[in-house]
Amino acid sequence: MVNLKVKAYELRKDIVTxxxxxxxxxxxxxxxxxxxxxxxxxxxxxxxxxxxxxxxRDRFVLSKGHAAEALYCVLADRGFFSKSDLDNYSGYISEYxxxxxxxxxxxxxxxxxxxxxxxVAVGMALAGKxxxxxxxxxxxxxxGELAEGSVWEGVMAASHYKLDNLTAIVDRNKLQISGWTxxxxxxDRLEDRWAAFGWHVITIPGNDVDAIDKAIEEAKTxxxxxxxxxxxxxxxxxxxxxxxxxxxxxxxxxxxxxARAMEELEAELELRRVSLGE
Amino acid sequence: xxxxxxxxVICEVLLExxxxxxxxxxxxxxxxxxxxxxxxxxxxxxxxxxxxIAEQNLVSISAGLAxxxxxxxxxxxxxxxxxxxxxxxxxxxxxxxxxxxLIGISGGISYxxxxxxxxxTNDIAAMASIPNMRVYIPSDRFQTEKLxxxxxxxxxxxxxxxxxxxxxxxxxEDEIEFEMDKATVLQQxxxxxxxxxxxxxxxxxxxxxxxxxxxxxxRVIDMYCIKPMDKEVVVRAARETKGIITIEEHTRFGxxxxxxxxxxxxxxxxxxxxxxxxxxxxxxxGKSKEVFKYYxxxxxGIVKTASExxxxxx
Lengths: 278, 314
Known about the structure:
The complex is a heterodimer of chains A (278) and B (314). Chain A has 278 residues and is an alpha/beta fold. Chain A has nine helices and seven strands, in the order ααβααβαβββααβαβα. Chain A has a five-stranded parallel β-sheet, with helices on both faces. Chain B has helices at residues 6-20, 38-43, 55-67, 78-84, 86-95, 123-128, 141-152, 201-213, 231-240, 256-267, 288-294, 299-313, and strands spanning 24-28, 48-50, 71-77, 100-105, 135-136, 158-161, 184-187, 192-196, 218-222, 225-227, 243-251, 272-278. In chain B, strands 2-1-3-4-6-5-10 form a seven-stranded mixed β-sheet, sandwiched between helices. A five-stranded mixed β-sheet of chain B has the order 7-9-8-11-12, sandwiched between helices. In chain B, α1 runs parallel beside α7, α3 runs parallel beside α5 and α9 crosses α10.
């Protein structure tokens, strides 16, 4: 059994290294969402490189597609493709590009334009209901993304069709490219907004793998309505000077910053390994 | 006069096919009545999804269903489907390559007096310019049926535009030629060529009959397949006749005529092409036939343009 707390920091190192080497990427959002992806891909999703086209597999849609580096690092580590496939990330003729691309093994649909993923996930969940299948559908949205009106079309439909096989997770890192979400377009009383549309709402500390795990388990028990997990995350989580800085939305670390980031991540990784007696 | 609208034929084909194919799913955005799909919703409720007045959602949900193996048919007024949901079509359907067939109903100027908000005179341009999107505009009920059966057999995205009202038959049930992605040559001719699509094919056909009396032999082509366009038939027409007139219920920018012109300019640049199309303004109020006549898209208008063209090229 993979230790999720350790895995989340091993993958943070992969993400920062990928972005440093490629010279591009959305580092802030990658680091805020990675714990959620780790809990999904190493604990809950019944999809693997072996059942990539199986009709009963769970589906995942990264609606906040700009966190592609986090998803690619997870998929490579899970064996959907080789880690060396990412050597040319976003380079000439690469299929591994800055937003999820379904030419890549393990990616269900293309995302990147915000406000699409939830509605696509609604379609996947409806298909599951039509065919009496047990698979579950998960999607991760950003909190800045919630300003897209189309998100609320999807929220409405999921509730109307009582899609209890659908779980949406909001990576609520409270920042977006221009600054604090509350200043750009506030999402206050976020829980009330989703609840008013008929969703079951769970709020958690979003970089805490135990809390994420528990919330996803709870969502599986909710019947007759979809569940949203409001994951209160920290943008750039794990690297002190990247945390909570809008300027690090898609900044690339220089040599010195890269070395410092890796040092910090390695230190936390050591602590996590020690606390597990590894 | 035929009383069956092309959209009604779409419903009939889907009704029949859905009996034996549980993967066929029809989606509407409060448009089941206007799309003539009420029968489908009542007969196959488990294969019908209502999304309410939310065209973006309509398209994305269709893509999600299709990614799970469903054959999704999303029917909504062409005006809203083709441009309000253009982004969802681009990303979730075309880019993700999901098996979604977008049925644009009451297309072109079918909605008449409802005004520009309800007209779709830029839908060909909007849809055809999206990579991996196909565009079809069938001319009558028989061709619509053939097209639908062909589309049911493939798994690629497509946009299909049909009008609101019944249109005159272009073909006869027992003798309709149809080959997917090949235009139909309705009649041969060696003087000029008329290339039309949708509801204007019948006008081109009538114009050819009138032209014959004036000693002009017009070739008539039904270009129901706008994209991928049948290039071969266009090049042949450009080489074998003295000029081409395109006729469409769309603006002249990025429509079927633009695409024909592009092919001719590329392959046979000495042949003249005239594009008959709707103006770059909101169209006048009127029934389809009246609007077509006003802008010279009816058989009389086509005859006039064709006669002038013949004088100039001889």
